[in-house]
Design brief:
single chain; about 190 residues; alpha/beta; Nucleoside Triphosphate Pyrophosphohydrolase; 2 domains; eleven-stranded mixed sheet; about 25% helix
């Protein structure tokens, strides 16, 4: 079954070919969401024979951006960054003519100061989220890869990207960071653990 979850402000909207779960409210258009949000309801399901096309149609007035990132492991510890007051995983936008894997490696290396001893083991998850930047509505699709680091580089957060810290955490501490991070990051962590 095809399924795509979008983290849209406070809401989670799942575009799928079948109903997903009992707590999701079936909706037909965007106008219904605000009324449900005012009642404290935030999980929605839009059913379609072509879920990805429905997602693109739903967000047709948004700029669509592709990004890539990684959940990096070294010696049973996991790499996190602290940016904009929140623990997050390293990621960034694709450059022109760049593929998802190349972008993921480049972004993790740039944001954390790692060398080329970084290797991708597999695709973990694909997430979608919305945000506003310079008065523009953005829909970002991020390909998340499980990575392993074999080098010895000391972490160096990319300050010009607003990254205050880059740090390794144990599995337990990473689980706690994931719970207080963005919903999309929690989904990446759940896809791994």
């Amino acid at each position: 079954m095809q399924m795509y979850k979008v983290f849209d402000s406070k809401s989670q909207i799942i575009f799928s070919s079948k109903k997903i779960n009992n707590y999701s409210i079936l909706i037909n258009d965007f106008s219904e969401i605000e009324a449900y949000n005012s009642k404290g309801l935030f999980h929605f399901n839009f059913i379609s024979d072509v879920p990805f096309q429905s997602l693109l149609n739903w967000y047709s007035n948004y700029d669509f951006i592709d990004a890539s990132g990684g959940l990096v492991e070294m010696n049973k510890n996991f790499l996190w960054i602290f940016r904009n007051g929140c623990w997050d995983l390293p990621k960034g936008k694709l450059e022109p003519s760049e593929d998802f894997k190349t972008a993921a490696l480049r972004e993790v290396q740039e944001e954390c100061g790692l060398d080329n001893q970084l290797k991708i083991s597999k695709l973990l998850h694909v997430s979608f989220h919305t945000y506003i930047q310079d008065s523009k509505s953005i829909l970002k699709r991020t390909h998340w890869y499980k990575m392993n680091y074999y080098g010895q580089n000391k972490l160096k957060p990319q300050k010009e990207e607003g990254i205050e810290k880059a740090q390794w955490f144990t599995f337990k501490d990473s689980s706690n960071k994931a719970k207080i991070s963005f919903g999309s990051v929690l989904d990446v962590w759940k896809a791994f653990s």
